[in-house]
TrEMBL record:
The keyword NADP applies. Residues 14-258 form the NADP-dependent oxidoreductase domain. SUPFAM superfamilies: NAD(P)-linked oxidoreductase. This is Aldo/keto reductase.
Amino acid sequence: MEYYQLTDGLQLPKLGFGTFRLKGSAGVKAITSAIDQGYTLIDTAYNYENEGTVGAAIRRASVPRSQLLVQSKLPGRYYHYQDALDALEESLHRSGLDYFDTYLLHWPNPKKDEYVEAWRALIDAQKFGLIRSIGVCNFLPEYLDRLQKETGVMPVINQIELHPYFNQATQRAADEKRGVLTQDWSPLGRASAVLNDPVLKTIADAHSKGVGQVILRWDIQHGTLPLPKSAHASRQAANLDVFDFELSDDEMQRIDDLTKPDGRTKGQNPATYEEF
Ligand SMILES: NC(=O)C1=CN([C@@H]2O[C@H](COP(=O)(O)OP(=O)(O)OC[C@H]3O[C@@H](n4cnc5c(N)ncnc54)[C@H](OP(=O)(O)O)[C@@H]3O)[C@@H](O)[C@H]2O)C=CC1
Ligand SMILES: O=C(O)C(=O)[C@@H](O)[C@H](O)C(=O)CO
């Protein structure tokens, strides 16, 4: 595995595991399988209602907790300061963990305008030792700058929707300029049409790889960290097996050219979409 170093010093693997919709005993089985196969960064969220499932999988897996990186997220309904700390403690309790390695604000919800207060809670939770690194999801450049301006602390991670049909070139550059690592949610486009794209298929065939593997390799060569989810051991293994080939500049460009202005999978524009 190769690693990124966050600006606060924490190292993250270049690829992690998404867990949205992995719940209950089937979820425990799937997440245990992912860890046993080599995933060390596990992405969950309060709103996935599966932090207990993630904790159970970690206790069953063959890798000690100290060698894993667990990432969860604070939902928008808990952005008042004390609510945020209480929700974080509840998430830790549900997962049976003493700390999260990384912890993110889930959505900016700009109309509600509470994300700065929530950010102050994360800054303090980090000081209390409940979280190692703090970040955000779905933050536009102006929201990142506001956090820096009002609290003096820039997030180290911004997790955003990113796949070949919505490649986020502008947001990626904005994150990089600010020293923020971009993580990619729905990197496989939630198993939508992108997985059958003919350009991706041609490139995949040229490398004797699958389309999913080409997408994840493209993410990593852009310096971002994809979080593919799969309930199936064989796909989990395939999605991790992306470190033995390299896309050429021309192939990278051909994939970049697939982006579409309205390429979001569910139209969730963080300037207008709100989630609590
Ligand atoms: N911060 C945020 O706002 C958000 C964060 N996330 C995070 O990002 C993670 C990933 O995004 P997600 O929306 O789950 O979607 P993904 O883009 O990871 O796609 C998951 C889908 O692709 C299928 N799949 C996985 N691997 C392959 C493969 N190699 N070939 C073909 N199909 C495959 C899966 O099926 P199967 O399971 O049957 O294998 C599943 O249906 C989430 O699980 C979550 O952790 C997601 C959305 C928003
Ligand atoms: O999965 C997540 O992390 C989300 O933020 C959700 O909004 C997800 O994108 C979704 O599709 C909810 O319908």
